[in-house]
Amino acid sequence: MSRKLIAANWKMNGSLAQCRELLPPLASVARDSLPLVVCPPACYLPTVAALAADSALQVGAQDAAQHDAGAYTGEMSAAMLRELGCQYAIVGHSERRHGLGETDDMVAAKAAACLRHGLTPIICIGETQAQYEAGQTADVVERQVKAVLARVVAEDLVKTVFAYEPVWAIGTGLAATPEQAQAVHASIRALLTQAGGGEAAKRVPVLYGGSVKAGNAASLFAMPDIDGALVGGASLVAAEMVAIYQAGLNTFQLD
Ligand SMILES: O=C(CO)COP(=O)(O)O
């Protein structure tokens, strides 16, 4: 299995009409050798799963509950998301950490809940602009990764995906440079290696997210520890998302 992967995070955007418009071009380019995961708002998951059905496209949710069932109004469990056709769920997106108060431990519990139910968690980590300016990137990333490692056993690590998303690069048009991102990705890989043993850690995809577009994807993908992208705004334009995916097909050494 290749450790490369490209994912689209629509955030709270889209409509039924947009699902029908955005999915067919992606379905026609998706290949098994490079997983392409579409994460629409939860209400569109059944529609997106149906549109993806006869293709290599995969479906992900944008969040998953940390609990399996119970009195948690508005939440959706990992098992429910599986029933809706999801193979993946994003957890710990900075818009949930900073906008909705999710803690490192909640994010780790969500990742563990996904793993209990056979969903692959795409675990987002990354520093804010203030932390970046204060030179705290390495410390923040280490704390966020270690919180996950405290709840996910080493043999499950290989079933996870990490996404480094510096908050200052999200939706700003100001992506990290390939070299900046590579340095952080290498440190994430080192933490995973320490925790999960060399071989398992080598197979965990570490994606980059933050202002990825067709114009910068190939230079990011050329870095040895950048295994793909978690794409926000550009994923709402079919031609952009197709071009980003094609940059992956052309740049990555795929199995
Ligand atoms: O948050 C992101 C993906 O999860 C990145 O968003 P943008 O690609 O819009 O910067």
TrEMBL record:
The active site is at 93 (electrophile), 165 (proton acceptor). Its EC number is 5.3.1.1. It is an enzyme of class 5 (isomerase). One of its GO terms (cellular component) is cytosol. One of its GO terms (biological process) is glyceraldehyde-3-phosphate biosynthetic process. It catalyses: D-glyceraldehyde 3-phosphate = dihydroxyacetone phosphate. It holds the Pfam family TIM. The keyword Cytoplasm applies. Its main location: cytoplasm. CDD domains: TIM. Substrate binds at residues 9-11, 171, 211, 232-233. One of its GO terms (molecular function) is triose-phosphate isomerase activity. InterPro entries: Aldolase_TIM, TIM_sf, TrioseP_Isoase_bac/euk, Triosephosphate_isomerase, Triosephosphate_isomerase_AS. It is found in: Cytoplasm. The keyword Isomerase applies. Keywords: Cytoplasm, Gluconeogenesis, Glycolysis, Isomerase. Pathway: Carbohydrate metabolism; erythritol degradation; Carbohydrate degradation; glycolysis; D-glyceraldehyde 3-phosphate from glycerone phosphate: step 1/1; Carbohydrate biosynthesis; gluconeogenesis. NCBIfam families: tim. This is Triosephosphate isomerase. It comes from Chitinivorax tropicus. The lineage of its organism: Bacteria, Pseudomonadati, Pseudomonadota, Betaproteobacteria, Chitinivorax. The gene is tpiA.
